[in-house]
């Protein structure tokens, strides 16, 4: 409980440590990234990315290979509006490229595009419990390319 606290979710930038230093934000929570030495960080959790699709999606009709994975349209999640990230780098190393048809600022909004479509959503596994509780008829699968584990941290400036 924090009765005098106001939470504001803001767009991520390339220089979040500067926003912390300049008192534009009080707390950063997100994937670990490089911050200036004076910024304090604390690891919250580690997670991995998995795929999410509607139940009955044709991706489940056979073995999920990298080639079948990229054969369907994808959702990219980026608070910066980017259509590429670590998954695209991993696919590129295999000479593959996915077709991003939708860019969403959050996983939470992206999951609503899955029912009734053939879109695939790479999603942080720790976010799935929320998606599963909504009863949208979604199914998880392993992404068929090696991806690094993601560390989620909180960071603040000790001002």
Name a few traits of the molecule:
D-Maltodextrin-Binding Protein, domain 2; transcription regulation; 3-stranded antiparallel beta sheet; alpha+beta; transcription; LysR family transcriptional regulator; 5 helices
Summarize the structure in words.
There is one protein chain. This protein is an alpha+beta fold and 159 residues long. It has a domain at 49-141: D-Maltodextrin-Binding Protein, domain 2, CATH 3.40.190. The chain is built from five helices and eight strands, in the order αβββαβαβαβαββ. The chain has a three-stranded antiparallel β-sheet with strand order 1-8-2. It has a three-stranded antiparallel β-sheet with strand order 6-3-7. Helix 3 (86-93) links the parallel strand 4 (73-77) and strand 5 (99-104). It is globular, with a radius of gyration of 17 Å.
